Amino acid sequence: MLDAFFDLSAFLQLLVLGVLSALMLATSFVWLGWLNRRFASVPKLLPVGPAFTPVATVFALFLSFLAVDIWTQQRMAIDAASKEVTAVMRLSELMAPAALDVPRAAPLLAAYRNAVSTEEWGVHFNHQASPGAALALRELRLQAVRLSRDGVPAAMVAQWFKAVDDLEDARLRRLFIGSDHTDDNQWWVVVGLAFFAHLMIAAVHLDRPPAGRMVLVVFSIATTLALWQLAMHTNPYNGGFTRVTMPAGLATQPVASP
After folding, report:
1. What's the rounded Cα separation, in Å, for the pair 67 and 15?
2. 53 pLDDT above the threshold of 90
3. How many domains does one find in the chain?
4. In b/e form, how buried is each residue of 14-34, taking b as 16+ CB within 10 angstroms?
5. Is residue 227 part of a domain?
6. CB 173 within 8 A of CB 80
7. What mean pLDDT, rounded, does the chain reach?
């Protein structure tokens, strides 16, 4: 549900979060006004100052957990891209005349790179897999069987298998991150705790509405900026801040005939 939000530009993400913060701020103002009117007839309604601390602490903890999860996904995305390029380079070296001399594998690897760069990275931003890339991987794996039948040493065939396995593993990890880069429930919990933090700030200032409104405005701005920073970095392949771009090693290549 939140994937569409994380694919927005940085400005639109800020706009959406600004509207959300404005709604929370308006609600907390109404809550503060109602509490202030109740306080006139029920003086014992006034909470002690530290009453705000538990909610603020839980909000800060979950915000930290969300940030750690996002940065971890960023590192995993960078690592997956690096391993995919390394696997492509390894296969290119193995199919060269000086190694296994597999010219029929060159167009397969080129087809893989074309499908990945134009469809998975270019069109779907790694949200969806390309059937063309999956087919090219399958054919590259079958090349190992042909190499074995041609009498190539088992150690060299094993290297080919490992290179294809590494390529497939890196691709699957990239697609997994692109299709499921964050936990929506975690975001909803953080937003909910931010709302309760607004209400608690209003509650501890029910006897001083002007001061309460000032604190609420400052807290709302700070919360919006914090959530905006996290939202921009949530999707490593698209959105407000694209941290991981398509490596040059996966760029489109002309597909030669075998």
Report:
1. 21
2. no
3. 1
4. beebeebbeebbeebbebbee
5. yes
6. yes
7. 87
